[in-house]
Amino acid sequence: LPNEFVQRGVHFGEVDEMRIFTLLIALLAVSGCAKEAPVQSSSSPPSAAVAKASNPVKVLMIIAHQDFRDEELTEPKNLLEQAGHTVVIASSREGTAKGMLGMRVSVDMTLKQVNPEEFGAIVFVGGTGAQEYWHDSTAQAIAREAVAQGKVLGAICLAPVTLANAGVLKGKRATVWATERDRLMAQGATYTGGAIRAQAAAGAGRAVIPDGGSPLSLPDGVCSVSG
């Protein structure tokens, strides 16, 4: 992340969606992702100065119906809503989804009801339950359509495997929870195992792509985003 993001916080009204997601996903450095218990971070993430977005968008966050990672949903969702964006929760079926740490969330729509055109950004949330989408044709279709339409597309923790299996990480620099790195590489991604940075992506879409040297010292598997 650029130093001014870390030292001064990000004013959402002055940056585009790509930078918004760089900050939001970086703040997930405290998450344990594939672990059952909360993980203590050696350094606390910086506080963000959240100004209202000049062009609010609808953001779709896709969670597993069972065992999504709680804070990987709540932390970016809270920041997005503070900035004036609308967050919609989708899952594999209707009803109440349950997080790894006990959180319960009402699902707004199923994956089969999702129209990527209605959203400015789409994020697949991690946790052990994210594996339910690795080979899910509907989830993969959403990822491919998001890229085709130039949306911001993100995945956290174990969820980048869904993007890889959808074919949208081929030729991209990407990271994932370390135990699953071979799955990304098998689908043509270059595994970095590093932190994240924002950059323009070749072709359709916008990207937040992993790279080394983050001031936040992010752990493996914080995020992978393809454009």
Structural features, described:
Residues 1-20, 22-31, 39-48 and 197-227 have low confidence and may be disordered. The chain has 227 residues and is of the alpha/beta class. The two termini are 18 Å apart. Helix 2 packs across helix 3 (70-82) and helix 4 crosses helix 5 (160-166). The protein has 6 helices and 13 strands.
Secondary structure elements and their pairing?
Elements lengths: L2 H6 L8 H10 L31 E5 L3 E3 L1 H13 L3 E6 L4 E4 L4 E3 L2 E2 L10 E4 L12 H12 L3 E4 L4 H7 L6 E2 L6 H6 L3 E2 L3 E5 L7 E5 L12 E3 L1
Parallel strand pairs: 1-3, 1-7, 2-4, 3-6, 7-8, 9-10
Antiparallel strand pairs: 4-5, 8-13, 11-12
Describe what is shown at a glance:
With 227 residues, the chain is α/β, with parallel strands linked by helices. Helices cover 24% and strands 21% of the residues. The protein is built from 6 helices and 13 strands.
Features:
about 230 residues, 6-stranded mixed beta sheet, 3-stranded mixed beta sheet, 6 helices, disordered C terminus
The rough form would be described as: globular
| Strand residue content | 15-25%
**What's the oligomerization state?**
single chain
Tell me the helix content: 10-25%
Number of helices: 6
The rounded Rg comes to 16 Å
Largest sheet: 6 strands, mixed
**Secondary-structure content class:** alpha/beta
Average pLDDT rating = 74
Give the termini separation: 18 Å
Low-confidence stretches: 1-20, 22-31, 39-48, 197-227
Which strands sit side by side, in order, in the main sheet? 6-3-1-7-8-13
* Number of E-type strands: 13
String of helices and strands:
HHEEHEEEEEHEHEHEEEE
